[in-house]
């Protein structure tokens, strides 16, 4: 349970950190979201260590590495924790030396991201391998949601509603989410595993949309292009439940075939279904999010909520940024569909392996 | 204000805020905020976002509050973050400190407001915040991170192999040859992934470091050569081929009435120094008369500011021929061991480079000149006089210091100081390795023109409203040496219509 709580805490605190930096702008080592983030990683690692202690003591179960035994998921989380510690040291030096002047996606930031994914993926593996236990399917759904939320937080700059007609937005979504949803569907033992994970992800993120603005906050550094008085809510969650439902329908309700041809067929079906539904739903929903109808606390839309440092023309607040991020067209849509098929194929492989996982 | 005038003011403001120095990022400002004399030292961060420090010293005890308000120039109206309340520094009299965040590098207006029973006051301090140095990772940290990387890679390979071999196998079931093959594949894939990640990360680091280094604030190299006949050589400065249009010299603004302040320092002994003001000949050329200083290799530092918001320190190196004929300076003693020279009157048309500028000055110290018993505190002046560094105590790096100088005639009587380009003196300093060069004024290291323009922008009175004292006997330069080492200071004053230069060699020790 500690492992899962820690894993859920990682994207939660990263969303908080995004909100903090977009509202207050001061990004100190021990700022509250950073401290909470370190605690979340530590919590996940503590859960993984408890599992390792149990398996080592019992001597039979788990994967042996030297004298120690632990479930695969716990090992992955511990590896992520160690990688996080190293990346944090690297990041401290980098921030003091380069700051953000050299760019956002710098090597220690990438290393930290890999570490976060390892921590959360470890919890996901462990939850999927323990679905037979009481509450196991719910924990698997929550762990899948944590992984989906990790993808969401890493890609958050591309998921502002103003960018949700862009080719990059659809290509990023198609390259990442199908892998998790298809793997969840393949390895899950609930009736609709992918749908459950997508719903949990949406609930998780929408809670942040509603809760974060309840906390006061204002910029401490300038220039302040958008004065803020409360923490910035993240973008409204993607409506992943729609393509997830289709994936569950295709892969679980329709009888599965056997062999490589069936796998290729499933990847094609799942990928195309994901792309088609994801594009259709987000294309229309983002139009709504930019409209006055979404200008309320529920959707946090209407072009009202912006990071304080973003210098944005008033006319661009409710518009799609086709000039900055070219909109989806035939060629980019084909690429996005291809990425979705490849991602779904990878999800089938990963899900198949996870279904067999016994330790 | 009319829009056009406002736009012009703003353009000039951007241009003048940046003060070009080498290796000396801190800003020193001395002026008046309403009824209060105030000294402000701003230490910008080296990385962004980062914390800047402002030390505000006021001698009046009735000041009850000090507020610091940074504003990013060019961001538009109403984009300032909330102001920061400065706090009194414990154990100090009249010293206040404030920490405030700067989000990114660029030009700032640092507003300092004082409240007191005698009335409020405000000053605007121009600040150019830039990254100055390329980072170098400490070897110990590098070794530790490498060890971490090796451990993580080994762990990933071992974990992938173990998971592939045992993950799907019941604990009581022996491993098959198929399991072993899966283990090898898993380990191979993990090793490939780790190697790819390390190589990719390293390549990205190098690329980002290159980009960072290219964007550092650094002096701009220019071409320098000597032209003209042997009797009156001309020093010619030109922009190199490929210089971006934004650096062209057709858009310069004046600072103290000059488009360019050029400093020459003879290498390696730094025994000859000149502060000159060449004339612009075209958008890519400056020319000026070479004063009668000894031949040799000279390091050049030139300060210019553009209308479009960039300020630059130009650097170059030039070989000057030995002077031919008599010195231009009337009355100069060619046998003197120390020559402090400047034109005593305009010669011809100062707009033509055939004449020295009235404010040009140079200093030559003969190799045979006897060394001062205390070169850190006493400098010989031409004609038997002397200049003294009156500041007490030793100089410490990164410590706010008031460098005070007095000059005395051959008879030992104090010399009266006259305005030299509008102020009581100018000083230039250079670290022995050339890594630091700064041009100081009694008002600090800020551009006075920039501070005036910022005051106009903020609707406050000029911080330099007080006239230069008529009977001044002492000149003071607020400064903090950015790092320890040996420095040479050239301090220039005007007295009796002539510019005299005192040369000091000081050692700055590391801050404990």
What's the story with the biggest beta sheet of chain A?
A: 2 strands, antiparallel
Supply the helix-strand structural class of chain A.
mainly alpha
- Structural shape of chain A: globular
Mean pLDDT rating of chain B: 83
Estimated share of beta-strand residues of chain A: under 5%
Query: Helix count of chain B?
Result: 4
Residue share in helices of chain B? 10-25%
N-to-C SSE string of chain A, H for helix and E for strand: HHEEHHHHHEHHH
List the quaternary state of the chains: heterodimer
Structural class of chain B: alpha+beta
Q: So what's the overall shape of chain B?
A: globular
Radius of gyration of chain B: 29 Å
| Number of DSSP-assigned strands of chain B | 30
> How do the strands of the widest beta sheet of chain A line up side by side?
1-2
Given as residue ranges, the uncertain stretches of chain A (5+ residues, pLDDT < 50) are none
Q: What is the makeup of the main sheet of chain B?
A: 8 strands, mixed
Instruction: Give the distance, in angstroms, between the N- and C-terminal Cα atoms of chain B.
Output: 51 Å
Tally of extended strands of chain A?
3
Mean pLDDT rating of chain A: 93
Low-confidence stretches of chain B: 1-20, 327-335, 345-350
Q: Helical content of chain A, roughly?
A: 55-70%
Question: Top keywords for this entry?
Answer:
heterodimer, A: mainly alpha, two-stranded antiparallel ribbon, 3 strands, B: about 500 residues, alpha+beta, five-stranded antiparallel β-sheet
Write the layout of secondary structure elements.
The complex is a heterodimer of chains A (359) and B (512).
Chain A: H1 2-23, H2 32-58, E1 63-65, E2 68-70, H3 72-97, H4 107-129, H5 136-154, H6 167-187, H7 193-211, E3 221-222, H8 241-253, H9 259-289, H10 330-356
Antiparallel strand pairs in A: 1-2
Helix pairs in contact in A: 1-2, 1-4, 1-5, 2-3, 2-4, 3-4, 4-5, 5-6, 5-7, 6-7, 6-8, 6-9, 6-10, 7-8, 8-9, 9-10
Chain B: H1 3-17, E1 27-33, E2 36-43, E3 50-58, E4 63-72, E5 84-85, E6 87-88, E7 95-102, E8 106-116, E9 121-129, H2 139-166, H3 177-214, E10 220-221, E11 223-227, E12 234-238, E13 252-253, E14 261-266, E15 272-276, E16 279-282, E17 285-289, E18 296-306, E19 311-320, E20 338-341, E21 361-365, E22 378-380, E23 386-389, E24 395-396, E25 401-408, E26 426-431, E27 437-440, H4 448-458, E28 474-479, E29 485-495, E30 498-509
Parallel strand pairs in B: 10-19, 24-30
Antiparallel strand pairs in B: 1-2, 2-3, 3-7, 4-5, 4-8, 6-7, 8-9, 11-12, 12-17, 13-18, 14-15, 14-18, 15-21, 16-17, 18-19, 20-21, 22-23, 23-25, 25-28, 26-27, 26-29, 29-30
Helix pairs in contact in B: 1-4, 2-3
